[in-house]
Structures are given as structure tokens and as C-alpha cells.
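A common beginner's mistake is to predict each chain separately and then try to dock the pieces by hand. The better habit, illustrated here, is to supply every component at once so that their relative placement is modeled jointly.
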Amino acid sequence: MTDDAPGKGAPDENGEDVTAPLLEIRGLSVSYRTRGGVVKAVRGVDLDVWPGQVTAVVGGSGSGKSTTAHAVIRLLAANGTIDAGTVRFGRHDLAALSEAELRTVRGARIGLVPQDPTVSLNPVKRVGEQVAEVLRIHGLATRRSAAAEAVAVLDRAGLPDAAVRARQYPHELSGGMRQRALIAVAIAARPALIIADEPTSALDVTVQRVILDRLQHLTEESGTAILLVTHDLGVAADRAHRLVVMEQGRVVEAGETRAVLADPQHEYTRRLLASAPSLTTARPRTPVNTSPGSAAPPDTAVPLVEARNLVKEFRLPRAGGEARTLRAVDDVSLTLRRGRTLALVGESGSGKSTTARLVLRLAEATSGQVLFDGTDVTTAGGASVRQLRRRAQLVYQNPYASLDPRFSVGEVITEPLRAFKVGDRASRLDRARELLDRVALPAATLERRPAELSGGQRQRVAIARALALSPDLVVCDEPVSALDVSVQAQVLDLLAELQADTGVAYLFISHDLAVVRQIADQVAVMRAGRVVETGPPEELFSEPRHAYTRELLAAIPGGRAPSPSTVTATVRGPL
Amino acid sequence: MRRYVVRRLAQAVGVLWAAYTVSFLVLDFLPGDPVSAMAGAGMDSGQPDPAQLARLRHEYGFDKPVLVQYAEYLGRAVRGDFGDAVSTGRPVTATLADALPQTLQLTGAALLLAVVLGGGLAVVATYTSRRWLRQLLLSLPPLGVSVPTFWVGLLLVEAFSFELRWFPAFGNDGLRGLVLPALTLAVPTGAQVAQVLAKSLLTALDQPYVETARAKGAGRWRVHLRHALRNASLPALTVVGLLVGQLIAGSVVVETVFSRDGLGRVTAAAVTTQDIPLVQGVVVFGALIFVATNLLVDLVYPLLDPRIVVAPDRRAGFA
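With all components supplied together, the output reads:
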């Protein structure tokens, strides 16, 4: 499994044996004490990282990949313990070092790039100070020289205007810039190994690419090895020399990336490959979508939703006495037909969610028009807005936050029915049971609380709730972004199936082009409040006209997979 | 920034006015008036002369309609004149000015003790890895909040004055006389500081940036003091601002228990004799200190947390 020879050896400035792994994990077991008992998160993991190489650990949430990475430098949550195993790094077994000895390794020999850059920097300290701190702790700089060194390191991490940024506070930097600052923290002491725990999953796809490029560049430049933890097989395929696949705390497959992708041995790896949206070029769509009009009503003259020249401006806090406004949505026109899916794609801040809110009349447009089923609802009030609410529903991004934790699933699903006084208690429960069946959840779920369900199950409940009133339109705001890839595929399938059965139209918001490709009939690419390109996905993906669309497409991870043709050949469709 | 301060000052004036008005109304609703209270206290032998009382009432303006009295008092109060204390005849402002230094010493010392002891307890309790010590330390603040101040005072006097004879039991006798009253006053205050700071320290220690700091190789003290404490100090600072009001209120009990001169005792005396001008003076003065402290706290926030920008324009912003 981990016994084959290293790929290309990298120059090793630390004088270590390049023919031996830099990091050698053997039989690692980690458990967490929880209220419900002891949870074994990692069970007997073997894993090697070779000098100068990127080793990616992939798996779904709960697979133990992140715990494994953190166990290397023993930064586990307070209730986590290493039960067994060795973590050999250089000459030391990190699992057996004292806390004080370990501190000379952390930051100096092994750097960590954490998951969420928005919360991983100390908000009350200047960025430069936080980089300088590493140098100060390990005695690599004096109080005086540390500041200048920090700027140099920030520059090396790819942060533009490093000298200016160093004097700023984290909240004054964008997410991508913060992640570069955190990379600077990790590389400051020129460590031999960097542990990157989902370093880009909180970032936009184009920013993701810049960050990963930077990390890769650093590896090549200085021979630093990287242990990359990711849920995104596409990212792993692009970046890693070696791949380690984890499931339920165990390593199920490991080897050179090319070999694993081309010929996956384990059932779970195959499933992961099949459901990775970024690696599939086209999804076998449900018949109704490929042959429009079979079950959905024919394309009548009147579209379900028509937005004309929508503009939404927000007032910004005054600065220098001058009133400023932000044009979040700038002259957007869209058409969505019954039973179809229109996807809005763009990065955070591109105005896609605001556009959806305007369509749903959850926000007032500054100018422009919204027509719902031929009726102008832009300025409608009272009863007609309520009527619109009944015909247009919303599925939110985060299924953990969008379900009331005090409601039972039955109450969650029947709430729209109660709000519109549809039927009596018994008939509402019948409807809830039917809807649960629709979204493939057992009827017993009715009595359970959202907290007892997994993320995928919760999103199914949210979808059932959205469908309760048989709406004509469901706005899906990043409905699968918070879910594991394998679960993503299931939920996308479900959405397509429900559309085929009920003829509902979707306004589908996503930052993930790969997801959009699987579900949309029509795609609108948004940037800075404007729609820069629209078209059917096949066209958009094969012949993007706008430069920004091309940039987005190029940034999709998995595009640089060693042999995409071989990969897709093994893909037979989702689960 | 300047607009913010101006707006906050305007708010402060509003608070002072409200404090004045409410205390005026409450005092007016109380049965009796200061003149009869004074007469009853001063001349317990024989009946007071009704004519003399009426003359006194007229002199102080107590015979006028309430609204007129209110307008007159308020008009003078705005110019800093709170009239004369009925019981002593001395100007209210002079009485307060005499009592102030003693009380400032007491509350200042108590605040210092509360922050140092309460903050120290919170830091040690959240730092220690010994479970029993943490549990023990964290169980102290709720105890400190719930025991009555006068009882703590009596216990301290019993132990340190009567048994050990380390500190005097009463009086305004220099620094040694300050120790026991300040400690008494600091117990409930420090307990609240400790509770809030310990809670927010534990929250801060759970934040991802703490993991980043540990991954840098930072030691536990560095993580605790340089990273967590500063982030955790904001809620504690808010509480300190509010506790200043509590300290002034607490000085009434403590100064009485320890027979110390000061604002607290002036207040207690003024209330028992229904000395309306004096009570009004105390109320407005207390409100002034409270408002000033909290304005100061608000201005310190941005220094501790760069994310807080003073002078937010509330009318604008994102939907």
C-alpha cells in the first residue's frame, strides 16, 4: 500500500535521507470521548509522506482524514486522544515526544495551513505580527528583524503589497489574502512538511486555484513536502503525487495518484470517483431533461419567471462625507421557463443570491421588473406577495441551520401547509408522509428531530418542505455546497427526479460550475452584478465566449487530472 | 469619531435628565416631606410648631405645585446648583464634594481588587490542566455573587479585626482602614468579572486562531495570554463598565457596615431624612459617573479590537 518507491526525489536541504519517507505514520488510532461514548475516528492508519511530494488524503466527512492530519502534530480537540501508533518524523516519534519537545517541531519543522482562513487568524493582531510570531517563537529573528522578515515571508506566500498588508488586521483582508497570510505563517520557518487541511474549501474557485498554485510552487521551489487533506478528488487529482483514500477511519487505498485514478482497486474509491462532479464531463441525465417537454408542460409563450433589467443598489457606510452605493445587481435580465432549471453561477459577491432574492421579492429592486407567470410582481404587495410565496419556495445552502432544531421533521415539512391553512391535521400528515417518500426518506423520519439526521438527510427534508405546497418555482441557493461529494450526487439526482415528476422549475444558485453542468438547462454566468454570458451548459462549457467564463472553467479542479479520459471511462454514473 | 462622541454626550445628557426626573417623581410620591421628617428628628420633645413648619416649607419651596417645584429645581440643577441640603443647610454640591474622595478611594480600590482578583482567577482557572483546581476555582464566582455584601463585611471584620487584629473594623483610617471595606465591595464585583472572563476565555480558546497559534509552536502561556485573553477581554470590559454603577450602590452598604464617611453614608442619611435636594444630587451624580465610565469603555473598545469602528452610521449599511 505504501511500500512503493518514491516518485521523484526532491533536493533536501535538511540533510535527510531522500530515499526514506519524511513522515511515516504506522498503526495510528485516534478516538474522541463524546457524551454518547468513545468514537474511534482513526483506526490503524498507515501513511507515508515523501520529501518534496504532495500527498493527498481524500475521503468524505467523518472519514478521519482531518483527524489523521492533526494527530501528526498532536493538535487534536481536547476530547481526542492518540490510542496507538507511531508518527515518525525525521528521527523522532512525534506521538511519543513531550509537549515541550513537540513545540520545537510545530511551526519550525511542520507548518499547518488551516481550513477556514476567515477565522484562523487572531482578529486583534496585525497580520505581520502573526507571521513574525513564528520567527520569534523559534528564535529565528530578533524583535527588530522579525517585522521585516515577516513582510518578506508574506511576499513569498504570494500576498501582493506585503508591506501594506503586514500592517493591516485580518478583517481588512479578503478570504484569499488571509489564506495567503496563513500560508506565510506555515512557511515562515521553512519547515520540511506542511499540513494543509482543506486549505481552499472555504474559497472561491478562482482563488482556490491561485492558492493551490502557490502551495505547489513552494513545494517545487524549496522541496517542502505537503500533506494535503481534501474532500475534493479533483483538487487531489490535480495536485498530488500520491493519493491516500480514507473511509470510516481506515485507509482503503493508497498509491500514486495516476495509478489510483486510472485503476481504482477499492469499491469506495470507485464510488468517490463516480460522484466527484468535477471529474465527470457529463452526467447521464434523467430522460425528461434530455428530451425537453416529455413530462414538463410545453414551452408556452409565457415564461414562469422573467426578470427585466433588474438593478439593486445598497448604500455603503459614508466615508469622507460622500454617500456611496454598491451596485450588487446591475441590469440583469433572465428568463426561466416552467419545468426547467436556470443556473446562476459566479463567485461570492457576484450578485447571484441577491438576484434570487429580488425574484422572490425578499428584497426590493432599485429598478427593473420581475414578472411571475406573466404578472408583474415588482411592486406587488400584501395578498399578491403572499400568493407568490405560495408558488415560489426556497432551499437554503446550509441544512444544519435552515431547519428549526425544536421542530420534528413532520412539523418542519407541514409548516408551509399550516401557514397557508391547507387541509386539516390528518391530511397534512399524509402529505408529509408522501413527501418523505418522494425524497426517499423512511416514514419513521417524521417523528425525528433535525439533529438526528445527517446533512444529506436534512437537505432532503428541506426539499420536501419546499415542495409541500406544490410550488411552480424552487430557488435552490447552493443546495449541495455543504454536503459531501457522494451525498451531493444523490441530492442532485433527487432534484432532477422531482422536476421530472412535478414539473417544478428551479432557479439554481451555485459557485460550482461542475455541479451546474449536471443540473441546468440554461446557465447565466454572473460577475460583479452583471450577467456576462448565458447559454445552455453544453455550449457554455465547450465554447465559452466570455473571458471570465473561460477563467472559471479553467479553475475547476480535476481539469489537470493525469488522465481524464481514463477516469471518465471508468465512470458509469452516480451510485 | 467626533460625531460619535458628541452623539454619546447628548445621550448622556438625556440619561441624566431621566435620572433626575424619575428620582424627583419617586421622592414626591413618598408620604411626608423633609421638613416634617427633620422636625420629627430634631425636636422629639414636644410638638413642632405648625407655623414654623409652614415657614420652613415655604422657604424651601415645598408648598408650591409639584410641576413648579420640578421646573425650578431642574432649572437650577442645569446650572450646577442643587440647592441646600435640608438636614444640614449646607449646599448639596459641597456636601457631595466633601464625601467624594473617600468613596472614590473605596470604589477605586474595590474595582482594582475586583479586576485583579477576578481576572486572575479566571485566567488561572482556564489555564490549569488540573480538573479539580479548575472546578474549585470556577465554583467560587457564583458563590461570591450570591452571598450578601453586608454578611461578607461582617465575616471579614470578625476574622481580620476582632480575631487577628490586622485591620481596623471601622473608620476612614488611611490605607489600613481601606483594606476590609474595599475587599468586601470587591467580592461580588470581582466574582462577576471572573464569571464573564472565564466564560469568554473558554470560548476564545476554542477558536480556530488558537489552533493556528499552537501550530506555530507557541507555548500555553503565550496562547493563553497573548491570543485568547485579549480577545476575551471585551465582554469582561463591558461588565466592568456596568459594575461601576454597582460599586457606587454597594458603597451605601459597605460604608454603613464599616462606619466610613463617604457618598454612601450621605446617601443613606439623605434617604432616611427625605432630604430631597441631597438625594437628587446623589442620584444625578451617580448617573454622571456611570455614564462617563461607560462612554470611556466604549471608547476603549476600538483599541482592544480593531474590528470595532467607532461612529457606525446606523442609517446606512447592507440589507
